[in-house]
Amino acid sequence: MTFNFFNVRKLCTTTALYKNVQLTKDRFPNLKRGSYAVVNSTDVDYFTNIVGVNNFITGEEVKSYNEDWLKSVSGFSKYVLKPKTTEQVSSILKYCYERGIAVCIQGGNTGLVGGSVPVFDEVILSTSAMNKIISFNKLSGVLVCQAGCVLENLMNYVQNEGFIMPFDLGAKGTCQIGGNLATNAGGLRLIKYGSLQGSVLGLQAVLADGQVLDCLNTLKKDNTGYHLKHLFIGSEGTLGIITKIAIQCPNAPKFVNASFIGLESFDKVLSFFSLIRKEFSGSLSSFELMDSVAIKSVQKNIGIKCPINDDLKFYILVELSADNNYINHSIQEFLEKALNEEIILDATVADQPSLIQNLWKIRENIPESLLRYGYVYKYDITLPHENFYEIVPDIRRRLEKLNVKAVCGYGHLGDGNLHLNVATSEHNNKIASAIEPYVYEWTSKYKGSISAEHGIGFLKSKYLKYSKSNLEVDLMRKIKNNIDPKKILNPYKIFPQNDSN
């Protein structure tokens, strides 16, 4: 077992690999634009008056707002509005509701299912200018902030106060807290701190007609009827625009330890997970699985070296956090025993922040490394632990005669969330047809979820039936139609559209 650390090469930043992204309307020609109003000069004057010239975006700059991070879908909106306050959002939505103008809500635009970009020419309402921290109570640990705050900025802020955010994401440097709530993001710490939904004490949201729903409660306990905040967490902007959030932050642990471990089989991975969860149940904050294909992709395309033997089949990144330093000595003894019993084959341990961060960079750079092949089909699913990895070799066999660069699996094994990725040089309908709906049928067969933390958005809307019954979808539609009867908020998202592609 090695305890030597490594230097991570400076990452080179890349922009889009594609000069032109096919318009969603062309990729899905049977999809029809709703009967929404087309923005005219009078509308432009009104919007400019509300948000100001600097926060009204048009022209070439709108292009980046029209395309998703994966460069898989693209709308053709001409206008981006960047309000700074709830009142401005309210004025915009009230006007759009009266005029019948469709609105696409966008945060950090890090989603993977086309939920944060327009499908046609919807006006884009970006929350990025709503980025103020309103208050932080050091006694209760409750943070109140605007929806456009970048997650990493919030993490740094509360860390300086001796607290941590109850969740962490690979996209933390770009994603926004409002979008995190809108998709009910899970992330890297769910195994210890639970779902994001459980940490949100309250929120403020603007409804389609401009009414402001103020549920910005900061109380830990409030048993007064329906908790309407839950309607908006996971609603992906289809019921209202979240503008403010109150979130419970735990005290920062005094000691954190990370281990990078290599194993020879998935059975060994499950055995190791069972053992470490039993030994460190109160301290286990992350348990991330990566297969060899994912690790080799990071090494080849990003330039980050694997800190241990790079010829193994599976790798695990384990993070422990506690208020006493027993974990550092205990984890080394635990790993040595696992090594002697041949449960694991290699490992390295880090207890200094910079070294821990280096280990996490491997895991966090997997998505970017795969994207550098050209195009990635990404599937964010939840499966029972015993079936967690089975679909990866199954998909490899299914695609072995097609021009595929890489098929890999990684993700949050601790909560059953697998990220299945198929990397190719470009989008190919034959490959797409071989994967979908097969991957969702497979997931449904094992009682899994077709979306673990990125939502349904546009790209998964026609597959909702694999995770929701007809009754559930019908009730969801009724809620949507009641709160947004003109359907101006994030149209074409979540609910199945009349399209055969």
TrEMBL record:
Matches recorded under PROSITE patterns: FAD_PCMH (PS51387)
This protein's source sits in the domain of life called Eukaryota
Q: Report any Pfam family annotated for this entry.
A: FAD-oxidase_C
Main EC class the enzyme belongs to: oxidoreductase
For this record, the Gene Ontology CC terms, alphabetical, are: mitochondrion; peroxisome
Which cofactors does it use? FAD
Protein function: Catalyzes the oxidation of D-2-hydroxyglutarate (D-2-HG) to alpha-ketoglutarate. Also catalyzes the oxidation of other D-2-hydroxyacids, such as D-malate (D-MAL) and D-lactate (D-LAC). Exhibits high activities towards D-2-HG and D-MAL but a very weak activity towards D-LAC.
Its assembly, as annotated, is: Homodimer.
> What name has this protein been given in UniProt?
D-2-hydroxyglutarate dehydrogenase, mitochondrial
